[in-house]
Amino acid sequence: MNPKIIELKWTGYAHQHLVGRTIIGVHYATKEEADQMGVRNRPLMLALDNGTVLWMMSDNPGNDGGALHGVLFDDAADPLLFPTL
């Protein structure tokens, strides 16, 4: 499949599920949640206003929890890191 079509598909998917949502809670995965996901590293979990829960994984198959990286919109020199535990 054409890479541009794949990108458009997944951008649309992300837009549909994320734009306009509000993060209403955060917590690190508990040991029990990590065990259910089959991961060793406990990722940060984001609860959205519609009941969706998001977390970072190390790769597409979900082989382990992953860190969340970012930057403040007004200070790219000070990166944000939410590590796995």
The gross shape turns out to be: globular
Sequence of strands across the biggest β-sheet: 1-2-3
How many beta-strand runs? 5
What is the N-to-C succession of helices and strands? HEHEEEE
Structure description:
The chain has one domain. It is built from two helices and five strands. It has helices at 3-18, 31-37; strands at residues 23-28, 44-48, 53-55, 68-72, 75-82.
Short description:
The chain is an alpha+beta fold and 85 residues long.
Question: Helices, strands, pairings?
Answer:
Layout: H1 3-18, E1 23-28, H2 31-37, E2 44-48, E3 53-55, E4 68-72, E5 75-82
Give the tags.
85 residues; alpha+beta; 27% helix; globular
